[in-house]
Amino acid sequence: MYKILLKKAGVILIIMSILGLMGCGNDKYTVKRIEKALTEKYGGTFEVLALGNRYGTMTNDYVRADVKAVDSGVVFSAKMNTKGEIIADNYAGVLVSKQLEDMLNSNLESEGITAKSCMTGFSSIDTGEIEVGISFNDYIAKHKPESFGGYLVVKESPNNTGAAFINAFQKTFDTIKNIELVANVWIIPEENYDEIIAEMSQLPDIDNSWFDDKNTLNYFKFVMSTDGVNMAENEINQLFQGGD
Predict the structure, then answer these.
(1) Cα separation of 8 and 11, whole Å?
(2) Which of 27, 113, 196, 235 could be disulfide-bonded to 108 (CB atoms 3.0-4.6 Å)?
(3) Nearest Cα to 179, choosing from 212, 220, 146, 203?
(4) pTM (predicted TM-score)
(5) For residue range 123-174, what is the model confidence (pLDDT) as tens digits?
(6) Exposure pattern of 199-213 as b/e (b: 16+ CB <10 Å)?
(7) What was the pLDDT predicted at 43?
């Protein structure tokens, strides 16, 4: 009886190994199909970073992937159906967001603050699909976003000040024609900043819960609109220096 059980267990292990290898092979095939389909659609080179839900079940007729555009470095989401067709992706929108992120990051850097942002435009009206490669000014004129919101990771520094922070946002706000800016701001210890930024750079999006298991120093929500800002310089100073 014991020998029979051992044989059965061995057969099960072999079957599981074969299925595992088949799954691995299928994933590699799927990755290549997605990368090829995106290249055919947009040109350039794409790298699949992770696969989400798979097709082939009763409820899934597509596979979702986190993809990096090698040329621009942006990470976005894409969906491919069973025919190998890209049925949805947010590549164009992420390219537009990167223009704002680079602007805000640069303005913060010019004020002595090291930070990385992850921003998205929001609008209550449907203005059609965003064109790949559209300039930020043309995007604003055509798609009329009502606000930009997202996340900002700030590297801890004794030199960070509320005045510098607000100045950087004001420069950005002026450049984007006074469109509301909303940022969930997370202050990260200096020694952990690079690691967290590296993780962020591999994700198409994040939310506040993503920071739950991260070593953070402080958090605040900052808003700049035509009504002004929701926080005073001294409040931000206190949060930058570890206060509540």
Answers:
(1) 5
(2) 113
(3) 146
(4) 0.85
(5) 988 889 999 999 999 999 999 999 999 999 999 999 999 999 999 999 999 9
(6) ebeeebbbeeeebee
(7) 96
CA distance 11 to 6: 9
